[in-house]
Write a structure and sequence with these properties.
The protein is built from 26 helices and 26 strands. By secondary structure, it is α+β, with helices and mostly antiparallel strands. Among the domains are: about 70 residues, Alpha-Beta Plaits, CATH 3.30.70.100; about 100 residues, Calcium-transporting ATPase, cytoplasmic transduction domain A, CATH 2.70.150.10; about 200 residues, no CATH class; about 100 residues, Calcium-transporting ATPase, cytoplasmic domain N, CATH 3.40.1110. The strands form five sheets. The protein has a seven-stranded mixed beta sheet with strand order 14-26-25-24-15-22-23, sandwiched between helices. The protein has a six-stranded antiparallel beta sheet with strand order 6-5-7-13-8-11, with no helix packed on it. It is elongated. The chain starts with a helix and ends in an 8-residue tail after the last helix. Pfam families: E1-E2_ATPase, HMA, Hydrolase. Belongs to the cation transport ATPase (P-type) (TC 3.A.3) family. Type IB subfamily. It is a multi-pass membrane protein. Its main location: membrane. This is Heavy metal translocating P-type ATPase.
Length: about 700
């Protein structure tokens, strides 16, 4: 049945199942998983996400998850239904023990081999071979399990993958080495086999480390929803209900300081909601009866009753999660090329080794000698250097950037960031610091006594404006006065008594923008305005971006006046009042006409755009969702981190291309020598390891590229 026919066959009540596939580690794996699931009757589509190591399957109800799991098991991949609440499955942890065993055993066996190479003969050589066998064989069995298990699963079903030639080479080389040990032969290759496994596992671990840092932002996004809420029954009674049990039509009573558990409409009460996660707008938004409010937003001021209109997957928050997950499916232009290459690798290596064996048999070399040469071909063609070319460069570059306060979560982002020629900058929290800063002139106009009272009142509140006052006054060395009878009223502010006088800090009677009013009994009211300041070095960072031929502009969910002020200050073009879907669409429009677009944002509303961009970066002050969705996170206040990340990414890709040239050059020189019988399995392993070390050494040059 064709794909189109299967799509027609799937009913309207199609089921979406997401499976975690921790063993999926390359483009070839992605292709195998998708093809295996798509071949099932009743499956409409299967899309993998390599970063999250998941596959989303759309299928008919009669196709049950156990069937999907069994199908992947037959292809060589363990899978399990993904649970959002479950601890993410680490791709690194299962590989650490095999890597440690391989490295430890390799070092010890190499000590024995040095003595043999130095001329040990007779009984001494035999003893060293036996000691090497006792250390090497158990270590090879244990360290090779990730490859053996995967190879066995696919071979049972008449298929092959990249682990098959590796497993064959390791098994035959180990068997021949043990045969040499039993018969008192001159050579044994336990050290070469262990070295091979060590470098293969090292490449897998480096790649998995980068991917574990790139945890899906979707789970973090959904955690923004409250775990439960107070529900008002028809008879007026209230009870706590967890989020999963909510139903449309129920009435939620949301206290000040609580996040909404579902989308809804305000029924009673007036308050303000912090919607910065959804819109990026730093100022809280008024909400009165009839106002539509969304899950995950924070009730700032006063209790309200909200009628539930959407729950679970129907909320605006879940829609953003779906946009993010869909955007993260296809991130690299090399995926299809790598997929085709991985399909060709295993049969090509098998064919080459088989032809080598047959050719030497025809030449009269005998079974043993022909087999040794064929093993050398299998080992020397192992793509260790190619496998290390990218992850080692990525890890070195990531380590160098980390020292400069930039965390690289996804190593493949370095490839994509190196190509960017356009950057979209969110305003609040990205171009600006994302926190309200009181006006310096207004603070300077306060007397010493007034400043100390303001400090005392603000220190009793967790309101964003109060926190801004505490930070700014603290930087001026202001000490808090002693106040009594402190009270905070939601939506109004803080009142107290100071030296017998009534004092208050709260909402001004009338004011444009963010501001707070300070009152002392018998004195004039003083209004302290707030603003969101540009990040340090913003002008220099924008100049460096233009020098790198990266064209910057502003894409923000904030109001038009707020964005216009920043656009005038920076000289950038801007789009304001953009929803999450608007941001994603604006970014994709640029991509469709050929731009390689980087997104820099910090809020939940930036999540889909961060995921859909060619590359993305977020400040450390970003929301959990922004940090999870972004490829990189910078921890300092300076915006210079953005051009620095681009420069290092471009340097990384230059090194990667050099690494590929070195690895391919090694194969061009080494494979013919192995086919001609000039290379033993040990020399093949040493040559393979040497090529890997050269690649690693070349990558280490990136450590100095973060100036």
């Amino acid at each position: 049945m064709t794909v189109a026919a299967r799509l027609r066959a799937v009913p309207d009540d199609a089921v979406h199942t997401v499976l975690a596939v921790p063993g999926m580690h390359c483009a070839g794996c992605m292709g195998k998983v998708e093809r295996a699931l798509a071949a099932l009757d009743g499956v409409a589509s299967a899309r993998t996400n390599l970063t999250a190591r998941t596959v989303e399957v759309i299928h008919a109800p009669e196709v049950e998850p156990p069937t999907l799991v069994a199908t992947l098991a037959a292809t060589g991949f363990d899978a399990q239904p993904r649970e959002i609440e479950a601890e993410p499955v680490s791709a690194v942890r299962p590989l650490l023990a095999p890597l440690g065993v391989a490295a430890f055993a390799c070092m010890n066996v190499m000590l024995m081999s040095v003595s043999v190479w130095s001329g040990a003969d007779g009984t001494t050589r035999s003893l060293f071979h036996w000691v090497s066998a006792m250390i090497g064989v158990p270590a090879i069995v244990y360290a090779g399990r990730p490859f053996f298990a995967s190879a066995w699963k696919v071979l049972r079903h008449g298929r092959t993958n990249m682990e098959v030639p590796i497993s064959i080479g390791v098994t035959i080389a180990t068997g021949l080495s043990f045969y040499e040990t039993l018969t008192g032969g001159a050579e044994a290759w336990f050290d070469g086999v262990l070295m091979l496994l060590m470098f293969l596992l090292a490449g897998r671990v480096l790649d998995a480390m980068m991917r574990d840092r790139a945890r899906s932002g979707v789970d973090a996004l959904l955690r923004q929803v409250a775990s439960g809420t107070m529900v008002v029954e028809a008879d007026g009674a209230t009870r706590w209900l967890d989020t999963k049990s909510l139903q449309p039509g129920m009435l939620m009573r949301v206290a000040a300081g609580e996040r909404l558990a579902a989308d809804g409409e305000v029924l009673r009460g007036t308050t303000r909601f912090d919607q910065s996660l959804l819109t990026g707008e730093s100022a809280p938004v008024e909400a009165a009866p009839g106002t539509v409010v969304h899950a995950g937003t924070l009730n700032v001021d006063a209790p309200v009753d909200v009628r539930v209109t959407a729950i679970g997957q129907d909320t605006a928050l879940s829609e953003i999660a779906r946009l993010m997950e869909a955007a993260g499916q296809s991130r690299s232009k090399f995926v299809r090329i790598a997929d085709r290459a991985s399909r060709l690798y295993a049969p090509a290596v098998h064919t080459l080794a088989a032809l080598t064996f047959a050719g030497w048999m025809i030449a009269g070399a005998g079974v043993y000698q022909s087999l040794v040469i064929a093993i050398a071909v299998l080992i020397i063609t192992c793509p260790c250097a190619l496998g290390l070319a990218v992850p080692v460069a990525q890890v070195v570059a990531a380590g160098a950037l980390l020292k400069r306060g930039i965390l690289v979560k996804d190593g493949s982002a370095l490839e994509r960031m190196a190509e960017v020629n356009r950057i979209l900058l969110d305003k609040t929290g990205t171009l600006t610091l994302g926190r309200p800063v009181p006006d310096e002139v207004a603070l300077g106009a306060l007397t010493e006594a007034q400043g100390s009272v303001v400090m005392a009142l603000a220190s009793h509140s967790r309101h964003p404006l109060s926190l801004g006052l505490v930070q700014a006054l603290g930087a001026r060395g202001v000490r808090a006065a002693v106040v009594e009878d402190v009270r905070e009223e939601a939506g109004q502010g803080i009142t107290a008594r100071w030296n017998g006088l009534a004092v208050a800090l709260g909402r001004p009677a009338s004011s444009q923008g963010m501001a707070t009013a300070f009152r002392i009994e018998g004195d004039a009211v003083r209004v302290i305005p707030f603003a969101d300041r540009l990040r340090p070095d913003a002008d220099e960072a924008l100049a460096q971006l233009k020098a790198l031929n990266v064209d910057p502009s502003i894409l923000s969910g904030d109001s038009v006046p707020a964005v216009a002020a920043v656009a005038r200050a920076t000289g950038l073009t801007a789009q304001a009042a953009a929803s999450p879907a608007d941001k994603q669409e604006a970014l994709q429009r640029l991509q469709r006409v050929g731009w390689k677009v980087m997104m820099a944002g910090d809020g939940l509303n930036d999540g889909p755009a961060l995921a859909a961009a060619n590359a993305s970066i977020a400040p450390g002050s970003a929301s959990d969702v922004g940090r999870q969705a972004a490829d990189m996170v910078f921890t300092g206040d300076s915006l210079l981190a953005v051009p620095r990340a681009i420069r290092v990414s471009r340097a990384t890709m230059r090194v990667v291309r050099q690494n590929f040239a070195l690895a391919i050059g090694y194969n061009v020189l080494a494979v013919p020598l192995a086919i001609l019988g000039h290379v033993t399995p040990l020399i093949a392993a040493v040559a393979m390891s040497t090529s890997s070390l050269i690649v690693v050494a070349n990558s280490l040059r990136l450590a100095g590229e973060t100036k």
